[in-house]
Amino acid sequence: MAYDNENSSSGLSSSLADLMTSLAVIFILLLVGMLHNAIQQAEGRRNQVLTMLQKALEEFRAKGVEVRTDPKDPLNLLVVVPEELLKFERGDSQVPAAGRAFLDSFIPRFVGTACSEELRSGISSVVVEGHASSEGSESGNLRLSQARSMAVVQKSIEVVDSSGAAESQEEHRCLVQLVSATGRGSAEPVLSNGSEDRQASRRVIFKIRVKSLEQQGFEGGSELTSSKSVNH
């Protein structure tokens, strides 16, 4: 009898172990499936934002504006504005007349798209980055790029406010909630054949951050939804 009891206990333990192993495998498979769906959703959001921005800013492509993904972060999109479009004076952070004229035409397209009902709920932030060449001191370039990025943000808000359209107030709130400014100095030069292209290194980048998996809240593949009220 004792031998039978031992066999019975051993069999029960083995069955429980097999059950726990099966449940663990099922749990892992479900988790992997959820993560895969969430990643696909994030990529779908990013691609939608990318496609709509490229279409909205198509007229600026011939002027050197580039809309592309960020090779360093799959959730970032980059709108690169070359220095010759903003035309900052050497050592100056004030947006000159030519730069203001560019922003007057560029910003309504950019903000109107990023803050549209189709895209707003899928965008986490917009960071305006100022970049300088390695010419000059590192600390001076950092301060100058920061001041220029702030000047671009301030001018962008002015452009939105000056439109007079009914939706400008909503776009103002959206832009203020999304946008921030930072200076990168000469930390990220543009290289050509292994050497710095100083002209290309002087640029402003609008970095759009698509919502992360956590921010999406594992929405289960739902489409981008409109959002009239936005949390700061």
CATH topology value: 60s Ribosomal Protein L30, Chain: A
Name of the CATH first level: Alpha Beta
What is the succession of H and E elements?
Answer: HHEEHHEHHEEEHEH
* Proportion in helices: 40-55%
- Oligomeric state of shown chains: single chain
Structural class: alpha+beta
Main β-sheet, spatial strand arrangement? 1-2-7-3-4
Give the C-alpha Rg.
Answer: 25 Å
Number of folding domains? 1
The backbone outline, from C-alpha atoms, is: elongated
Average pLDDT rating? 83
Number of strands: 7
Biggest sheet record: 5 strands, mixed
CATH level-four homologous superfamily name: OmpA-like domain
Number of helices: 8
Poorly predicted ranges:
218-232
Strand content: 15-25%
N→C terminal distance: 71 Å
CATH architecture assignment: 2-Layer Sandwich
